[in-house]
Amino acid sequence: MQTDFLVIGSGVAGLTFAIKAAKQFPDKKVLVLTKTHADETNTKYAQGGVAGVIDFKNDSFEKHIEDTLIAGAGLCNPKVVELVVKEGVDRIRELIEWGTQFDKEQDGDFKLGKEGGHSEFRILHHKDVTGQEIERALLAALNHYKNIEILNHCFVVDLITQHHLGYLVTKSTPGIECYGVYVFNQHNQKIETITAPITLLATGGNGQVYRSTTNPSIATGDGVAMVYRAKGRIENMEFIQFHPTALYEPGVRGQSFLITEAVRGDGGILRNVNGEAFMERYDERKDLAPRDIVARAIDNEMKITGTEFVYLDVRHIPTDKFIEHFPNIYEKCKSIGIDVSKDMIPVSPAAHYSCGGIKTDEWGRTSIDYLYAAGECASTGLHGANRLASNSLLEAMVFAHRCYVDAKDQIDKNKVEQLSIPEWNASGTTHPKEMILITQSLKEVKQLMSDYVGIVRTNTRLVRAMKRIDLLWEETESLYETSTVSPQLCELRNLITVSYLIVKGAHFRKESRGLHFNTDHPERAVLVQNIVL
Ligand code: FAD
Ligand code: SIN
User: Fold this and answer.
1) Residue where a domain stops, chosen among 418, 437, 464
2) pLDDT attached to residue 29
3) Ligand 1: which residue has its CA nearest to atom 42?
4) Confidence (pTM)
5) In this structure, what CATH number is given to the domain that contains residue 295?
């Protein structure tokens, strides 16, 4: 199959790019691939909203830039921060033109929320289901373009580069080029070849590396792993953001329900199991300190009190006000017997967001030619060592736009139709006889990453983690070489690769900065640097 613009992923980044490319080039074909359903994305689960400078009376670009830089702990690229904050306003307007409904006051002004690390109220939201509303609006907007096709249940396995034409490609090979992808089509269980002069990776995050995560099951870091295998550049993978307040539900595996930070923006207070409001002991911004600080404080309180959770207390917020802003959270709590007007909500930190990823420049170009990356899978320089709340939807839109602007000038340069790209070679492989080999290794990855590479790290734990990852890697590679491809096996392989990159980054960073905290190196180093792998 051949297309003009190939988009891997149907979250906010992929769909924004697809709509723009389809509108600009009605005669060209835009193909969007997703590994499950089009709306099963991290985007759909976003709660708090999109940060943007809308209220110029009280807010300013300078303040949003400053807040982003402070959260990023010295590692943001100031040029990228400025362009995202400034261009973000136009992208938000576009989102509204495409049909997204953000909550408004009675006078017609947008209702703006506040979250940790923000000095002003600047979060546009749709109740507590902002992502669902954005995903809905983007998918509806997409329907206007006949030249966009979405193929669901198509799992991208690998990028096609010169390697597949028989050339030796290493990390130091100049001019690596992307010609498309190999895809496992779950409808016919076959690997298909899709070529394109322009490929965008918008594959989202990797929260599934950990046992407890707010991310849905699709978040397995596939884009990052594919680029690493194709010898592209990955950076800052050690900066995994743990959201401080995922709902604590013993026995629930997979995706944890999020209690948005906007609840603390509306006055929610964190208390330990003894009922003590503890955040004032950790930071003068108390419950609205940046996420790394709040998550570490909770981790510490849980260790001191020997519990697996703390409480979020919203009993003092008028219930009708709570229900108006957070109907989804209210219902979820009610469904498990928590009456938020009387009971405190048990919460604990969970893996939430990957600040690092595929290294891009300010146009979303990766180190591989004709391959772009946008959204959570990319490392653009915006977040540095810690993402400011609600900056990721904004970043995804700004960079999807920038990728499109650059790609429209590149599309005619990559002559993929002149290449003879080989079909996928599955000779010598058979169906794995024991699925337990895959499921057990998956459990082991999550276990070791949660125990050794979580919120607080030490040198010894990192060394242990790497030894175990090496073993899992060896076992999984030999399984992969002899097995027919399946999404489960590919995801395991990708999660192991991503774990390796997180541990490697954490090992090289001999300091504590932002989301990376190592008790053997508790201070910030003098030399500030990105770790590129
Ligand atoms: P996603 O929306 O995750 O989409 C990924 C797409 O890639 C999917 O379509 C998937 O099928 C596809 N894909 C992945 N791998 C493959 C493969 N191998 N083959 C084919 N397709 C593939 N950010 C904010 O700014 N504000 C918030 O309020 C907010 N709240 C959040 C709440 C939750 C619970 C979570 C989990 C995240 C939240 N975030 C928030 C973060 C934000 O939602 C994500 O970073 C963002 O939506 C990512 O968008 P994306 O387009 O990069 O990827
Ligand atoms: C939240 O609503 O707390 C999540 C916001 C984000 O991750 O940016």
Assistant:
1) 418
2) 98
3) 43
4) 0.96
5) 3.90.700.10
